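Lab notebook: predicted structure, single chain.

Context: the supervisor wants predicted structures on file for every construct in the current expression panel, including those that have not yet been purified. This is the next one on the list. No modifications to the sequence; it matches the entry in the shared construct table.
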Amino acid sequence: MPTILGQNQYGKAENRVVKITRDGATHHIKDLNVSVSLSGDMDEVHYSGSNANVLPTDTTKNTVFAFAKEHGIESAEQFGIHLARHFVTSQEPIHRARIRIEEYTWERIEHAGKGAHSFVRKGQETRLAQITYDGTSWEVVSGLKDLVVMNSTDSEFWGYVKDRYTTLPEAYDRILATEVSGRWRFNWTDDEQRMPDWERSYEQTRKHLLQAFAETYSLSLQQTLYQMGSRVIDNRDEIDEIRFSLPNKHHFLVDLEPFGLKNDNEVYYAADRPYGLIEATVVRDGCEPRIPVDLSNL
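Prediction complete. Output recorded below exactly as produced.
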């Protein structure tokens, strides 16, 4: 045979599940987009078309919805752990399960009605989680994307390399804005007693990211990125690694002199492209980085 089968997986992608928890007149929403990917003893289905070891992807979809009822959704991470453990331990041919989850957040609308059951979709960011289990070890990576932040001052950019093609003027008071995409890897393996409080961990990690961004007097977006990652590692013992992809959302001062007007750092042109893209990993000393460089593959 001139070819052999390489790495492969299969599953059901983007299962949208919304779980309403009714606490009397007060309701709580968990809104997830769950993708299941399974791998194991799957050579024959590729070589001969035999489905003897194949759990239908429709079954994985049904499992997601059934588990939302049977186990509830305490957090994206905990829900993913339940699913990954189930697929690996209940099906002998399946050796590894990877669960990817996006969580969409809703805010409660305060109103004069009797019930607390009205919500508005939050537009701040999408929460992320990836849970991988191979029957013996776990890897849990959480994160977020589409978190847009801006400092309207306390940012400079100067002293950089210049050559014959450099036209960018040095800036000593500029807008610094970015759209944060970040992933962080937990050092939790399998000890149920040491399992992190996933909800609190996400809230606190997000808080440290935002505080570091706001409190850093920035001489470069790279410096701000490192401060954000360091703040998380220093304050969250359960996290060993965090990787960022930060596009520099450029804001350029508009030349108002043709109109006889002075632009004293007041009017900017927001350019959507091209944009600088700053990416880096911050790792706890003594740990090896394992989060892929390309966050789109996570």
